[in-house]
Amino acid sequence: xxxxxxxxxxxxxxxxxxxxxxxxxxxxxxxxxxxxxxxxxxxxxxxxxxxxxxxxxxxxxxxxxxxxxxxxxxxxxxxxxxxxxxxxxxxxxxxxxxxxxxxxxxxxxxxxxxxxxxxxxxxxxxxxxxxxxxxxxxxxxxxxxxxxxxxxxxxxxxxxxxxxxxxxxxxxxxxxxxxxxxxxxxxxxxxxxxxxxxxxxxxxxxxxxxxxxxxxxxxxxxxxxxxxxxxxxxxxxxxxxxxxxxxxxxxxxxxxxxxxxxxxxxxxxxxxxxxxxxxxxxxxxxxxxxxxxxxxxxxxxxxxxxxxxxxxxxxxxxxxxxxxxxxxxxxxxxxxxxxxxxxxxxxxxxxxxxxxxxxxxxxxxxxxxxxxxxxxxxxxxxxxxxxxxxxxxx
Length: 394
Ligand SMILES: Cc1cc2nc3c(=O)[nH]c(=O)nc-3n(C[C@H](O)[C@H](O)[C@H](O)COP(=O)(O)OP(=O)(O)OC[C@H]3O[C@@H](n4cnc5c(N)ncnc54)[C@H](O)[C@@H]3O)c2cc1C
What we know:
It contains 10 helices and 18 strands. The protein is of the alpha/beta class.
């Protein structure tokens, strides 16, 4: 096995796979280390995605699409449903296991060496503090691999950035422990993303049911870490939720996972290391969606790594440009979403129900997230004050 690479990518989720694919396309040598035993499995995700999020890089393949969705249905605590349908709300549910499997195959066809069951346990440092390479535990044998650039795409539990001295700690309120089942015999009425709000099911978060093929769906919930306690685990919330809304389903699969709902890290590079995806906290803190930003940041990290390999003396400037680009397309927007999240999740069930009743008075074709926001403000003017406070910090 070759030990000197242009780039080593740690993690084979969407961020790492798109980074490796981009780098291999440019003819650079790239090693991707993934600690799992099977690419794409287990899927710790509800798999909702916008078609354009992938299409802008490569055509979405038929087998990646588990179901198409054309609307959102927000279910209030009192059970009433608000439907939002408009082409802006169309998207699809991925077969993420197949998507990642195929992306790994595409990256490897272009020259990426992919190693499974390759747990990166440490960075090897040069005297100046930069990364010389990585130490990898391969079935109990520790091997070393070296590279000019290391990309940390190791997800929410990221350790690699910390090994470089970057603080990636998450406060309890900035992480959502999630639990999800993939169930059959679900019988959703429509091809919609069902979102359930209410403090009963998911305090500080929400529950979801997203359709998949063959009458199956991903049904899950995330509660804000601040409400997580050993008195009631997320699984108990989910069991109650299923008993209320989906008593007839059969569970095919359980998964758990954490979603970072924090601000994006300000520091996304140090020396010759870049951070992409969840490792850099790039999830939308309001809705918990992170696939598209993992892909975008993976591609941008890949491009920055290529540039740095071609012009190593300018590495600092090139990597700072990456940091700025991510702030512009992801981090800046997340600052406002983060503030709105803080306010929205303080509302109680009565607020949600009352606001919902007002929204239901608007005809379906005129409903939009903006009009929902207007109704929230009309019903609860102090909400606007909270939002203004949140934005201005007063
Ligand atoms: C329950 C749940 C539901 C979600 N639903 C949605 C949704 O519907 N839509 C959406 O857009 N987003 C959703 N998300 C968020 C989305 O899954 C993430 O934002 C996305 O996976 C981030 O991609 P990534 O490549 O950064 O990280 P990951 O997908 O987490 O990939 C990181 C990879 O790194 C590997 N790794 C970690 N450490 C090491 C190591 N030391 N050595 C080698 N390999 C390592 C891991 O095994 C993993 O494969 C959901 C998340 C959860 C938990």
